[in-house]
Amino acid sequence: MIKSFVTKILLLVLIPIAGAAQDIQYQAITADALRSSPAGAGIGFKILVDAANLGSSETRIAELTFPVGYAGPSHQHDAIEIFYVLSGTFGHNVNNVDGILEAGDVGIVRPGDSIIHSVIGSEPAIVLTIWLPGGATAPFHSP
User: Fold this and answer.
1) CA dihedral 27, 133, 80, 34 (to 10 degrees)
2) Would you tell me which of 31, 68, 93, 131 could form a disulfide with 79, CB atoms 3.0–4.6 Å apart?
């Protein structure tokens, strides 16, 4: 069920992009395009889609792994940020309203919202994260 949901999200995000950017050539995902965080990094990340393999910056999709005990600072993005929790329990505080997302839950943050991420419980939170547009000041920019 999770794979089906993720597939639907990816299609909803990527089909409009493909239609709007017909002059941009899709690039296959390569080792250089599919980047991961170095061992020992705080938040683990695996970039799945961004300008490196999409050919443009309309979206960025990453699998983020937040370690046990993680409590991030309050921050903002100038992009829509969509979270789909794959496993674990993810603290989702938006504009000082606490929320808890568990496997299968979706959270959304709009540009200008203040957000604090955290991990609740004894296992890491693994979260599929989508930034729209991907070229905004979302983390993990393309080189």
Assistant:
1) 30
2) 131
Look at the block and give the residue holding tokens 């729209």.
132
Report pLDDT digits (tens) over 111-125: 999 999 999 999 999
Q: Report pTM.
A: 0.73
CATH of residue 108:
2.60.120.10
Model confidence at 102: pLDDT above 80: yes
In a domain, 120, yes or no: yes
**The domain containing residue 49 runs over which residues?**
2-132
Q: How far apart are CA 48 and CA 92, in angstroms?
A: 22
**Separation between Cα atoms, residue 87 and residue 127, nearest integer Å:** 7
